[in-house]
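Exercise 3.2. Students should predict the tertiary structure of the chain below and write it as structure tokens, then compare their answer with the key that follows.

Predict this chain's 3D structure.
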Amino acid sequence: MNRRNFLKTGLGAAVAGALPMSLVELAWGAKDSERFTFAYISDSHITQIKGNRFVRNWDRGLIRAVAECNLLDPRPDFVIYGGDIAQLGKPEEIDHGLEIMSGLRDKVHYVMGEHDYYVDLGEYWRKRLGPDWYSFDHKGVHFIVLNSILTYPEWMHRKWDSGMARMKEMARLDNPNGSPFMVGEEQRKWLARDLAKVSHDTPIVVCSHSPLQKIYKGWNFWTEDAEQIHKLLAPFEKVTVIYGHVHQIQYNQLGNISFYAVMATAWPWPYPNSYAQADSRLPKLTVPMNRADPFFERDATGWQFIDVHTGRADVHYFLPSNSNRSVVFDERRGHPVDTRYQELAARIPPQNHY
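Answer key:
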């Protein structure tokens, strides 16, 4: 099967059900020679029980993702891991996750998640994997990997009983004692210097762990300095942000930036705007979303491939309890549109669309 037919037919639909990974195609030009694919795996939350015992449901998801990634034909050019390989950032958890990832046949670029970071502020991660943030170019596309799960220094460096106490405070989903995620001043300065070298017509793909937008602060589906990042990216014609962390399907358009969440290999989270509809802190989403039901065990885990053409992404999801769905960029509307949402919108009262 050639590359074009593979992407048209969605090979995984025939073999997977809920492949815990994402296949991303970038098609910035019309020629096949300018197209390439990469796989995206995220949020495995490897959890140590004791010694060499780990929570099997979660490492099994990562094992399956690696195995199925190795079966892809055509081969992806590389793999991106989107963060939270560990649950509590322990070396044993990171080592176990990386041991599983070592089975991949392809090069891997890693994004740091908060569960990888807060027990030792990333020391062990860097020892194994290198810098928190970096960039690289691939076939005419500029990739940027950010550490978006930093927070205010006075919170990070306050007097804690232990690094694990700090980790557990940040690991909770709904915790008033936590602190908002951010990219931070030092990294923003680095990003400005990095982007200054890039032509404004070069496609930009940013991989972060948190959304680089403000969805729901109570659950830290939030990046505190998101607007400052958007300002740095504003001069570029084609910008896509791909992120993990939220364990659910999301898509959005803010200015020139298209946002797409990737699903987790561990478990789905419920949607904060259905969990806390009366919470006045919740902003109305820019793009209405008809999404999978995360209260089913695997409904918001799975895989998707992303076909980015002329700098815009069409995302095709494959879910176990939902038939195949597509989120395509609508040039007339100027934002992604869920094809199933379009079909249902006329029959659902507008106040229920979320």
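Discussion points: The two ends are 39 Å apart (CA to CA). The mean pLDDT is 81.
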